[in-house]
Amino acid sequence: MNPAEESRDKLAVKVSDAERDIAVERLKDHYVAGRLTLSELEDRAAVAYQAATVAQLGAITADLPAQGKTSERTSTEMNPQVLILLLCFCPPAAFVYWLITRSPARRYHSHSQQRPSGV
What we know:
single chain, transmembrane helix
């Protein structure tokens, strides 16, 4: 098998739900950096969740810098003033802003609570 056929075969590999979620997180990072508009983010996220192969998933970020080349956000802390302005002028953008800036601990909060011993 020549290198071109190997490359083509790798692009035809099926993707998992976790890989789709990672791709959407990358899109959110590009949105925050100003590389995507809200409309582009929504469109590309929809395509990401429908992607079946590596090639389809890669197509949504082909025109964006690679992950290592994106600038890191200095803070993911939510600014309440920004949220209020977005709520007033563009509620969908406020929702995306809230999703992006909420803390990871809250995103993956476990609902299991321990009961006190002896009860």
